[in-house]
Fold these 3 entries.
Entry 1:
Amino acid sequence: MTLEQLAAIVARRATGEGEASYTRTLLAKGVAKCAQKLGEEAVETALAAVGADTKAVISETADLLYHLVVLLQARGVPLEDVYAELARRTRQSGLEEKASRPG
Ligand SMILES: N=c1c2ncn([C@@H]3O[C@H](COP(=O)(O)OP(=O)(O)OP(=O)(O)O)[C@@H](O)[C@H]3O)c2ncn1[C@@H]1O[C@H](COP(=O)(O)O)[C@@H](O)[C@H]1O
């Protein structure tokens, strides 16, 4: 499952009718609740990262990424815009690398 696939599922949950969905319930609570959940999952991921249980790191990271995608949906920010920002930074750091190389 990629972030794009997850974002597509989350977007469908946001607009779709039908059976109960954790995602739809969370989105209905608004941006502040989604942000709070993201913060909680970030702390849980950080705590897992300094522990010994690698499976916990993976599981908490999956929770974190899911809640990040939900928050972006709640704020109306497309994943593509985040990718574009990452790409912009990559180009910049590439130029800096070249500029700092001797010769
Ligand atoms: N990846 C996830 C995912 N990761 C975590 N979670 C849910 O996130 C919740 C977080 O657990 P917590 O104990 O922190 O939260 P809680 O106490 O239940 O809720 P709060 O009262 O704190 O808000 C759990 O209910 C998890 O099931 C997820 N729920 C959904 N997805 C994806 O979203 C898709 C749509 O899911 P539904 O909206 O449930 O259909 C699924 O097919 C998955 O791909």
Entry 2:
Amino acid sequence: MTAGLGFALDGLSLGYGGGLVLREVDLEIVPGEVLVVVGASGSGKSTLLRALAGLLPPYQGRILADGAEVAGTSGERAMVFQDDGLLPWRTVRRNVELPLKIRGVARRERAAQAREWIERVGLAGAQDKLPRELSGGMRQRVQLARALAGAPRAVLMDEPFGALDAQTRAQMQRLLLDVLRGTRATVIFVTHDVDEALLLADRVVVLGGQDVRSVLGVAGGDRDELRARILKEL
Ligand SMILES: Nc1ncnc2c1ncn2[C@@H]1O[C@H](COP(=O)(O)OP(=O)(O)OP(=O)(O)O)[C@@H](O)[C@H]1O
């Protein structure tokens, strides 16, 4: 199993067209942790995730991934979006095989690994279906399988369960916790939902006022107290 990626954000300023969204942020992300990012709408959660993915270059400062500056996307850092980023013309199996193909994994091995991931996310009967034949929850399962099949060292998730109904969302949260137990990947997960944050996180980062308002460790903490602290800062 490959180790999770550690990140260091060092005086990081991000924005668009000259407008600043985050100003001089310093933050360490520990290898293997689940870091959940919360914050009011427009506080820069997705912007931060895009920068970690290498999709948005910093105005100032640096993002280091295991000490090396992030410059562009990499198979080491997989992304999962709210609206599924699946290729509509490829079956479930061929979507999940994609990161393996990009990594140069041989065809038979690719098929075997994709099958294993499809089974782990509970879609064994659906591997030859096209994305349009699946429910929203099933499509998010495929995205999860695809992200993890590439054995990434970090998974960047932008409100992946935001569009799902409450029951499917709870199922997906359980599934995520379950599959993460079998990997050492670092997870950075953006959500609006404080309860989701507390369920999934090792640490919660609250963004606001162009900066990190606070970083809270979740393990062993009192949930009600943590929830109240986060809600106060949002
Ligand atoms: N491509 C873009 N071009 C210009 N401005 C953008 C772009 N994407 C985001 N912004 C602006 O940057 C700010 C932060 O947006 P971002 O999407 O990161 O916030 P967020 O915290 O993820 O919000 P939400 O919770 O509503 O998704 C907002 O003011 C937004 O309008």
Entry 3:
Amino acid sequence: MAIKSRFLISTTLILLLTCFFSWLSMRVLAEDIIGSWVERYAEKQVRYDKVRTLLPLIQEVNLSKEFANLNALTLWAKNPHDDNLKAQALQETEKFRPRFSDGSYFIALKGNDRYYYSDGEKPINSDYYRYTLDASKNSDAWFYGIMEKNLDLHLNVNPDVELGVVKLWSDVLIREGDEVLGVVGTGLDLSTFLNQMVEKQDIYSAILFTSPEGSIQLYQNEALISFSSLTNESNNQKCIFKLLDDEASHALLKSTYALAKESPNHVETAVVKKDGVRQLASVIYIPEIDWFQVNFIDINNFLPFTEFSGLLIVFAISLVFALLIVYLLLAVIVTKPIAELESSIRALGENQYKAPKLSRFAGPEIKRLVAHYRNISKTLLSYQQELEEKVATRTAELSRLSKRDPLTELYNRRGFEMHMADYMQKWESARTPFGLINVDVDRFKSINDQYGHGAGDLVLQRIADYLIEIVGENGEVSRWGGDEFLILVKQADVASLALISKQLLGKSNPLIVDIKSQNVTIQFSVGSALVQEEDTLADILHRADKAMYAVKFAGRD
Ligand SMILES: Nc1nc2c(ncn2[C@@H]2O[C@H](COP(=O)(O)OP(=O)(O)OP(=O)(O)O)[C@@H](O)[C@H]2O)c(=O)[nH]1
């Protein structure tokens, strides 16, 4: 795999790993930040919600307590059948009534089991009597339950069957000493109360108020409110724990309730699973009304992790840019110069020098490498050129030697045959007559025998010069073998051939060679032939040879 690809793959892997771990650490960091922000926010929100939501309620409770302590009311409660006391009591309570925010109150007396209610409307009957309480009726169980449990204060959400409304009741006992005389209180219209609660509710959190057992007393979703919590079996109640998704969350919230109860008005928190998401439950116990307030905050919704995704995208884009820059740098500094070097080396393989072009950004190591390569390649090329020249010279020399006789430097038989083949090809078109003269040295053996082989060689060289001299520019001399020579006469006719032959026969001016200070006359037998139509080289040679031998043997007679 190419360096570039390897580098790209490994860098991409490294960057992906970096991205992954950055994402992980960012996630952990973001969760920590979100967690701590949510906790701080929750603590403030819980306290704020407590004051905001419960202030009117607590105000009503306090008014109810004050109402229960009205002297005239206590006197009447002790003597419920005394009409005078009743009249005095109702006069007092009617004076008190406008102080309740709902402008209504109820009085339920133990002595006569009667329930009185006033809301400012003209009463059906003058004494505000509405109905008689019945211990066997489920709808009246709250009254007997409060008295039985001796609860000084009880907040209760309960439908008033007779009045046909659901109210948030603050029930307070009328007592004289330890004696319980009845229950009084006021009711807030639940729907109005809940609407106010929802209107003012923070968008991130849901507030619930529950009894210590967890039954929901106030919640924006009215359907989940547990009515008459005092009298219902806890299993049937609409319980806060049942809003949670799993057992672990259930147990955690319960233990948080226990912690909150240990330190009233102190906010305890727990992360639970509700409605399929993680939520921070902030729990505070409000001893004044013996309720727990719970705020649920959807952590992700409060500060969604997606808020951080922008950062992550910026990070990822930066990484991609970094990768691109690294890739480009790698190309400019390393891979492009290496590719240049490679193409130059390839050209060198074909005996061409192609200088590698390097940009000024190429890495210094590569520049040094290329500089070494340039020197080596130039040396290599000059060696090669030198070698080729030597080979060419040697080849030419060999070719020359293969065609020339080393002793006389004349064409040897092979060289002359090749030369004649060319010559005859040209002659085919030019048709300029030529001739061949066969020259054989007479009794050359005796020269060797008499003066030695070396002397014989010198004589042969001398003969070669002599023959060249005789034929001049118009001829070419070759050594046909041993002491036999062939002369090509280029522009020839019978007369010119006869003239040369006559000169060679040397009757008037023979060749005299000085051998070891002795003048030795060299004599030749000569035969010539003029080229004829349709002749081959062999044909002319044959005729010249024949003519020469005819002369030689004729001379011996
Ligand atoms: N020194 C020397 N002698 C050579 C060379 N080539 C051939 N000879 C000799 O030339 C002689 C040729 O002898 P022959 O063919 O009998 O010819 P000849 O002695 O001239 O006799 P005829 O031709 O019949 O007159 C031989 O003795 C060869 O050894 C050479 O290169 N150098």
